[in-house]
Amino acid sequence: MADRYTKTETGRAEIRARVHALTRTARNLLLIIDPSRDGANWVSMVQGASAADLQTLVDAGLVSLLGGPSVAPSVPPAEPEPSATSSAAPSTGPGALETSSLSYSDLYDLLPSLAKQHLGLMKGYRFVLAIEKADGLAGLQLVARDLLAEIERAKGAAVARSARRALLLP
Fold this sequence. Notes:
Blueprint: E1 5-7, H1 9-17, H2 24-32, H3 39-45, H4 51-59, E2 63-65, H5 81-88, H6 104-133, H7 136-155, H8 157-166
Antiparallel strand pairs: 1-2
Helix pairs in contact: 2-4, 5-7, 6-7, 7-8
């Protein structure tokens, strides 16, 4: 279980729709898992979770090995991006992310890691939920702007600048 895992499109949809009959521990594991840590570390962080819960998520196609084959190739994450990008274009201001070259999937994978790294697991969890609810690239950009503001408030301007650089922002 030293491998790193990432949510698939099916896993992201499961968080919103709750189609699968997952145990509480498996659902909690699905909510927090991202490529920032290995599978064993995530399992140890969810009380009562075991390797079997992680395997359940893999078998259901809700998570996959980082860099491994996507379980749901028929649902490409890039489809909603062009319309979301065009609707986000008018967004201007100090926290606007229109100059970032990150794609939807890059931003989706990076934001939870930044939230947990700079705000801790519990405060970062609120942002993980917001990321899961975000609609397209424009929604993720709004969450990123809020995350940067929270990081600046909690850790200061220097740490916020570092997070902005991680998001490929000036």
